[in-house]
Fold this protein.
Amino acid sequence: MNERVRAWLSQVVQDLEFDDPVVQYGSLQTAESGDQADTRDLFPGKAFIGCDLQRGPGVEILDDFERSRFGPDEVGAVICLEALEHVKHPWLAVAEVHRILKPGGLFLISVPFMTPKDSYPGDYWRMTAKALELLLKDAGFVEIEVSDTAIEHGREPGRDLGKSEVDSSRTASLYIAFAVARKAAANGAVVVERVERDSILKKMNPPSSLKTAEEYRLWQKVGHPRQNVQIIVPVFHREQDTKLMFEQLSKVTDNYSLIIVNNGFDDREFLDSLKPLHYIENKENTGAIRPTNQGLEVAEGDYVAVLHNDLLIFDEGWLDHIIEFMERRRDVGLVGLSGRHTINADGMYDNDTTVAGNRDLPISYKPTWRLTEVATIDGLGWVMRNTGFRLDESFGLMHFYDLDLSLQYIEAGYRVYSAAVDLTHLADTYERSTRSRSDYLDRIGSDDKSYFDEVHEKFRKKWQHVLPITRGFQDESSAYQRIDELFELVDDMRDYMDELGRYIKELETEEKKKGAEIEKTARYARMLANENSKKTAELEKLGKYVAELEKRSAIEGVSVEHTAVHSEQSGPTRRSAVAKFRLYMESEGLAKTLKRTALYIPRKAGLFNKNNPQNSRY
C-alpha cells in the first residue's frame, strides 16, 4: 500500500463518524504490501473484518467483492484501498457495497491511475477521481467527495499529464484517486418491521468464515448440528394428497417441526397424529396468504419453511442443503423450490425463464446448478430467513403472493434463489387445484379469472417502480435442451398435421358419399313432384268428366224428383254417378275412388265389352 494512501485513510477516519463492523476488501497482507496493508490499528474499538479471495495474513473471511456473502444493512463501513482495479466488474462491486452497508454507512476507496501492472489476482482498471464519482452516483451513494494526489503538487485534479510528467518517477504518487461516500440514511426501500436478531458477523460464528459446502459439513460433524427448522403447512381438504405429502416429507427431512394451519381438513385425527408444534384452526377457508402469515407469527428460529400440502419431495436432505447454503450466504434471504429469472413489466413472470426440478415440467426448466439466483420463487414451497417479512394480505386469498414476497426481499437488499429439488406437485392442473372448488369460487365471486386479473393489477401497481426485473441467467445447457424440445415439438406438430390431413381426406370422401346420397334424394324428390303434378292433372281431368256427366244427366231429364217417384212406383232405383262418387269417397278414400272412376268412365262411354265378366261389378 502506498504511504500516501495510508496517510489519507488515517485522516479520513479521524474526521468522519461511522459504525462497525468495518470490512476491508483486499486485506491480504503480502510480502510486497508490507505492514502498510494492515489498517486495523486505525480503527481502535471497532469490529474489523478482513476479506479477500484467498486465505492468508489479514484475512478473516473469504468473500467475493462482486457477490458478497454479507447480508443487507449489516456493515458499518467498507474500505477498499488499491483493490478496486483488481475487480473484473467494479460497478457490480460498488453496488454490492451499497447493498451491505447500513443506512448512513461509509465507503472509502483509493485507486491508482498511473502505476505498474500488478499480478494478483489480475489487473484490469485504472480510474480517475471523476470515474469513481460516476460509479458511486450510479450505485446510489450520496455525500460523495473525490480527490487525487495531484492536489499535493498544485495541479488540478484529473488534469491531463504532460509527457515529462508521464516519464517522471513521481507519476505513481501524483495520480492516486480517492473517494468518500455514504449510503443514504433512507434508501427509498419499502420499510418493514423485522425481527431483530444478532448478526452472524457480529458474533463471528464459524459458518461466516467457511467458504465451501464441504467445510460447512465438516464443521457440522464436529458438534454443530443444523438447527431445527419449523415448517408451515396450511391444509385445505385434499386429504389423500396431504397424507402422501407428510409421509414423503418424513422420509427425506430431518430435524424439523410442524406448524399446521387447518383451513378446512376433514381428518383431524390424522393431523393430531403428526404431533405439530403449533396447531391453528380457522372456521372458514382463508386461502393461502392469511394462514401462512398465521404460521409465521408463531414461528421461531433463524429460518422458516413453507410448503403446500400437495407437494411430494424426493431429495433426501433437501432442507439441509438449503440451510447450509443460507448459512454461508448471508446475502440470500429467500430460497424457493422453483422460480423464474424474470418478471415482466406487466407484472407477469416470464414462463420461459422457469427454473424447477418438478418431474412434470420440461427438461429445459431443470436447473444446471443446485442453487440458482432468480427474480421470484414459486409459491408451492420455500425457505425464508425469519426476519419479519410477511405475505401481503391485501391480495386476498391467493395469487401473486410469491412474486410479492420475492420483491420484498430483493428491495430490502437480499438475494432470492431457487434450489434444484426433485419434486412433484400433485395439483399441477386447474381441475385438481383448490381454484376449481366450488367453496373457493363462492368466496371470490365464482370467477377465478377475474379475481386473478384483479390481484395481478394490484401487484403491478405496487411494484411498477422496479419492473421489469431479471436476476440470474439461464446457461447454454438450458438453451440446448430447449432447442431439442422445440425440435420434438416440431416433429409432434408434423405428426399431428399428417393425422389431420388424413382426417380431412376421410371427411372429403365422406362428403362425397353424402353428396351422392343427397343428389339421389333430390332426384327422388323431383320424381315425386312430377308424379304429384301428373296426379293433379288426372284429378282435374276427372273433375271435368264428372261435370260433363252431370250436364248429360240433366239434359236426359233425369232428376231427383223423377227418381223419387220412380222409386215409389218401381222399388229401388240406381243412384246417379255423382252420388256414387261421393259415397265411394266417404267409404273407400280418394285413391280407390279414383281407380274405380277411371274404370267406370270408359265403360259408361261404351268402351268395355258388356259380355266381359270382369265388367259386371261396375
In short: The domain at 3-183 is CATH 3.40.50.150 (Rossmann fold). The chain has 18 helices and 22 strands. The two ends are 144 Å apart (CA to CA). Residues 286 and 397 are 6 Å apart (CA to CA).
